[in-house]
Here is the input.
Amino acid sequence: MEAVAPQSPAELTVTSPEQMRDLGRRLAKLLRAGDLVLLSGELGAGKTTLTRGLGEGLGVRGAVTSPTFVIARVHPSLGDGPPLVHVDAYRLSGGLDEMEDLDLDVSLPESVVVVEWGEGKVEELTEDRLHVVIHRAVGDTTDEVRHVTVQGVGARWAGAELGSLSA
Ligand SMILES: Nc1ncnc2c1ncn2[C@@H]1O[C@H](COP(=O)(O)OP(=O)(O)O)[C@@H](O)[C@H]1O
Ligand SMILES: [Mg+2]
Here is the structure.
């Protein structure tokens, strides 16, 4: 297999939860069935907030919330778009392979799959993915400023125009 050169990431600064949600809506425009979006960042970084906007952008049913008691939640499309599968990987001990065993009522290749992942669990993944990393300023617990990096990994994202995200 030919190596795909890494895409240069889009770097964004987000200053409120509303802006984070808006970023999710813009991100949704880039997505299609079969895509995997990986969200990294500490607890409270804004991963679920971003996913909420993504769900709105995709036009799916049901409010996106933290999947606290479930590993994954399926949000079917209200139109003819792909469903959103929202996964909390804090509850996935065996990595993404485990998702195949979840018995979701949708097929992952026909869905947009968004995984909230903790920091440092990403290395084991090799597939095409859009990797979003959210951090807040170190030591800052009240500020609403978040730094967001969006990087496309793999052939799916080679040549993708991520610059539109900063609009
Ligand atoms: N710029 C921001 N982006 C996202 N969330 C923010 C921002 N500033 C403050 N917040 C707050 O931080 C919290 C993020 O929570 P959540 O999205 O559930 O994070 P995570 O899923 O990463 O644990 C929310 O209470 C949200 O209102
Ligand atoms: Mg969350």
In short: Residues 47-48, 66, 116 surround magnesium ion (ligand 2) (CB under 6 Å).
